[in-house]
Amino acid sequence: MSNGNNEIIINSTIGNTRIVLTKNQVIDNIFIERPDHQRSVGNIYKGKVQNVIPGMQAAFIDIGDSVNAFLPFTEIGKYDVVNNEPFEIENSKGKSDKKINIEIGDEIVVQVIKEPFSGKGARVTTDISIPGSFMVLVPNTNYIGISKKISDRYERNKIKNIISNFKPKDFGIIARTICKNQKEKNIKNDFERLHKIWKEIKYKIDTIKGINLIYQDFTISDLVIRDLFTPKINKLIIDSKPLYKRINKLVKEINPESTSKIILHKSKSPIFDEYYNIEEQIQKALKTKVWLKSGGHLIIEHTEAMVVIDVNSGRFIGKKNHEENSLKINLEAAIEIIKQLRLRDIGGLIVIDFIDLEKEENRKKVYDALKKAIKIDGSKASLSEFSNFGLLQMTRQRVGLSLLYTLTDKCNVCHGLGRIPSLDTILTDIENWINRFRSRHSDRRLIIFVNEKVEDYILKSKKKSLNKIMFRKIMWIQIKKDDSLNISDFKVYSKKRKKDVTNEV
To answer: What pLDDT digit, counting tens, does each position of 285-309 carry?
Structure first.
């Protein structure tokens, strides 16, 4: 976060806990914790190797979930990025190659680095690390790493010397960015807390038999405090007294000077209504269409394989020629796209269709603007240049579920399609059902229950068509409404057998 009025506002309800970071009264990031979906990133498991597939360069590990965890060979003995904190090892002499030796049935200790998603198991690593407020503790190694974001050589040496005073030989310690300008006492207190946690983990690893959860990482609300409650945050406002007490206690242990920034929201009005219309801002973050200040807009669509973003000129009426107008919208869109990816927590493959630009130099400007926005955002992402079809592709690290998948469920009417059958399509389905039923059964008196909207359409617009079907099939058919039915569903009742016969076709 850059300078400005930066605040963290937490709303805790029976449905979920929502943590919002605001920058100058505008949402900059959202984190959501649901009681029915426990976060698993950071958890440590004792698992068992179920399968090793050399062709995929990966193994599948049973950690007690419904789907086996995925362990790429690249995640065995890897330590260039730990807990999303890129770092450099001070006085590093390089890494030696490791031979991968893993067999089916082996017991193995792994840590989750990516949530399970869309039927795929969690992604895991064998490199155990325990993140704290000022550092990341990496057992069974021996190095001191300093965050790459700390560029000042004097500050890096100072942090290295502080850590050297208390670091045991059989531990690696990575100083996080927030370590900068911290007191030695605070850094040492953080190490002692993490060291105590590791002793408990090691005891469980040595004593617990079989597949089991060894260590459960913090809740999201605790993680936000640990990772984001930096000196740049002006206020932390919470509307839950128990959560306020717990966070206050946690901050007091780590950085007592910051407790004065923590405020309990006592007003009867909802916290997200009282502060900056946050509720309304969250609802906007779920919409497909995002308006730009210029009058242009983005369309953001999720698919199984990727997220597709379309840039449109919308209401924009420029005073210059088409190329320059398109460039202006595209440059604005590039910055907004990265903001929306962060806000919606979108990861994986992303394809962007910017407004067509004829000049190569203008396409380069858009590419550079997007690249710069990614760098400022700090997310782990890669970007390709414009393809021959004018599309730009990028990938962004996915750790958990996106905002859309966290706050919404698949529609049981359209099943995620986003559209429902037209009324005429529904009538076609009903007529086809009648034809199949008539060819197999002798029942001639049927009651068809439909959604109220379908009933109204049949009785007002399709009554003659229904009479023709009855005459042709020598049947009596009555249409009745059933408010419990979705618009595309129908039920059929046989008067002769006095039973529901919908599934007999």
So the answer is: 989 999 999 899 999 999 888 999 9
User: In this predicted model, what pLDDT tens digit does every residue of 172-190 receive, in sequence order?
Assistant: 999 998 888 888 988 998 8
Are the C-beta atoms of 174 and 87 separated by less than 8 Å?
yes
Q: List, in sequence order, the alpha helices (H) in 344-462.
A: 360-377, 403-407, 423-440, 452-461
Paired with 7 in beta bridges are: 22, 235
Task: Please give the full DSSP string across 10-53, using - where no structure is assigned.
Answer: EEE-SS-EEEEEEETTEEEEEEEEBTTB---TT-EEEEEEEEEE
Nearest 10 degrees: CA dihedral of 340, 341, 342, 348? 170
pLDDT given for residue 500 in this prediction: 95
Q: Which residue has the tokens 């034809």?
A: 435
Q: Are strands 307-312 and 297-302 parallel, antiparallel or unpaired?
A: antiparallel
The whole-number average pLDDT for the span 53-63 is 91
Q: Give me the torsion for CA of 293, 298, 302, 306, rounded to 10°.
A: -110
**CA–CA gap between residue 84 and residue 89 (Å, rounded):** 15
Contact 48, 106 (CB under 8 A): yes
Q: Are 270 and 11 in contact (CB under 8 A)?
A: yes
Q: Kindly state the helix (H) or strand (E) to which residue 160 belongs, with its residue range.
A: helix 153-164
Q: Which two tokens stand for residue 70?
A: 């995925």
pLDDT at 98: 44
Please choose, from the candidates 401, 351, 285, the residue with its C-alpha nearest in 3D space to the C-alpha of residue 29: 285
- Calculate the alpha carbon distances from 452 to 255, 404, 412, 429 in Å: 61, 30, 18, 17
pTM for the full model?
Answer: 0.74
Yes or no: say if 318 and 361 are a contact pair by the CB < 8 Å rule: no
Q: Under 8 Å CB-to-CB from 314, ≥6 apart: which residues?
A: 291, 292, 295, 296, 297
pLDDT at residue 94, as a whole number: 45
Which pair of tokens denotes residue 103? 């067999």
* Alpha-carbon span 487 to 422, nearest angstrom: 9
User: Mean of the pLDDT values across residues 146-171?
Assistant: 91
Looking at the predicted structure, is the pLDDT value of residue 79 above 90? no
Instruction: Give the closest residue to 258 by CA, choosing from 8, 494, 34.
Output: 8
Q: Tokens representing 252?
A: 């007091």
Q: What is the mean pLDDT of residues 53-82?
A: 84
* Residue 374 three-state SS: helix
In angstroms, the CA 297 to CA 308 distance is 14
